[in-house]
Amino acid sequence: MSPTMPVGVRDPALAARLGLPRAEEGEAELLLVRQGDRLVLAGDSQRYGHPLTVDFVAGRAAHRRRFGGGRGQLVARACGLARGVTPSVVDATAGLGRDAFVLASLGAEVLLVERVAAIFALLEDGLVRARFDPEIREIAGRMELVHGDAARDLAALVAAADIAPQVVHLDPMFPHRDKSALVKKEMRLFRTLAGGDPDAPRLLEAALDLATHRVVVKRPRKAPPIQGPPPRHVIQDRTSRYDLYVHRRLDA
In whole angstroms, what is the distance from residue 135 CA to residue 138 CA? Predict the structure, then answer.
């Protein structure tokens, strides 16, 4: 087994289920392993920082749920959660589930699609723990997770989940401008696993075909839009923006 494989899994059953190679310490650049009550993705701390995990119960997710600004948050405004509207949402690039959790905490039913097997496993583990927490189990119950490539199979994945999404949320990979060393290391880990997003135009096309009301695309504030049709509207804050591709108005 090559020591340069990007990611390996210590648990043989989990490795088989995810289709990832079995590995021990030193045999993979990143190792998916259980630490205490949670699954983590760990690598060299100098390069990747602290082990990566998904925690919807405490930490950043809990702080954002309590103090993030509710429906005034940029992602909530972009997805149309205003004036009593609570649309059904597909988060086609789920990542660590942070935006999906915000939308679910505001009442939206959210289907999360994640193509990277190791990140899917972290999300799955985080959702299992969240569903046992009395404070947020109702929120976690509004989040459904599937493993698949949204750029290639979005329509089939959504059909299998039996939902009709009013909004599709996209957050394709882009060069991160945040000067925080922690964020840079986290993004480095994501790039090791997923590379860039050269298929972002195809993903946007699939999302536009699927969403009944709008597609929202998260971008750095000064980055160009994804190649394709121009957005109808743009909303932004100091560091990020959302490009909105609107089919029709969301009504309560």
Answer: 8
User: What's the full length of the chain, in residues?
Assistant: 252
Global pTM?
Answer: 0.90
Top-confidence residue, 187 or 27: 27
Contact 92, 154 (CB under 8 A): yes
Q: Which two tokens stand for residue 55?
A: 């925690």
Are the CB atoms for 150 and 113 separated by under 8 Å?
yes
Collapsing DSSP to helix, strand or coil, 178 comes out as coil
User: What is the enclosing helix (H) or strand (E) of 15?
Assistant: helix 12-18
What domains appear along the chain, each with residue ranges and CATH number?
A: 54-175+195-246 (3.40.50.150)
Task: Please say whether the beta carbons of 97 and 54 come within 8 A.
Answer: yes
| Secondary structure of residue 141 in the 3-state scheme | coil
